[in-house]
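Case study: Catalase.
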Amino acid sequence: MPSPLKYNKRFDKLTDEERELLEINKKSIADFVEQSSSVSDVGYATRNAHAKTYAVAEGKFIIAGNLPEYLQPFFDKSQYDLTLRFSNAHPKIIRGKKDIPAYGFAVKIKDENGVLVANYPLVNFPLFPINSVSTFLKLFTSVNRFFIKKWSSFSLMMQILKVIPSTFTGSFVKNIFKLWRKRNDFFLSFDYHSVGVYRLGDYMMKIKLKPQSVPKNFGKKLKVKDAVENYLNTNAFTADVMIQLCYDLKDQPVNQLNVEWKNTPFIKIGEIKIDQGNLLDPYACENEMLSFNPFESKIFFQPVGKLQKLREDAYKISMQTRMKINKLLKYNK
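Here is what the predicted structure looks like once written out:
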């Protein structure tokens, strides 16, 4: 196997036009969060994506005993503490309807002293339908404006239509059919993916969580939130943590997120474990206000790529606005 490619700042560089669109998008994020309590009819400001929390839990990240020697410097402890948030990707909290199977599995990794090591917001679909930063920013801005009634559904549809051509890849179509077949499966039976690329020191990686022995039909008659809580209150949960490394940009592109990486093996680096009954109150202020901004991670675990770079300011403006509004609302549960 050749040596992995090294990270370079050029993978993250935005153009002047993209930076201008990002400023417009940041304003739309702040506007959305300021009105999110009305959008979702709740007593606090929500996130502008993954607004609905299914559960918050504590767990452990157990490092594999047979970790390859070249990876050992990045994981110098045998285990790390975790805070995990399970969510739905929709920007609005919807009640009384069947949730779309667009799920989030966010992981906060800390050492034994409580120092943050890394944040990884993972999702149950391994690809992203947009490669163009400009197209994404225009779409994301239109979604925010649509929900706060500052943009028509026609305008939003026009932005969506621009995305459709980039979904016509073999990888994307295959995974759409796979998700459709699994659409009714239990939340914790899905694999979860980083979608974008992250640093591993000088290397670049993608991440995958693969649950062990979780029945896909668990809680079939329950709402997703109730099923997740029921499972974690009656079962321990374990998932394999695997990574792929980037060796060749042709086979493992950094800024083309609508295709799967190929010709790079999955390497198991450890396991996530959640003990039975290790749930936290998802509505407690300190848990609702959790941030999983991947740019708060240690430098050698931070995101890579142009679309990933957008997350830095998006997470910051969303969190700052949520904190300001929730302080004014005196939200404490």
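For the exam, be able to explain this: The longest strand covers residues 52-63.
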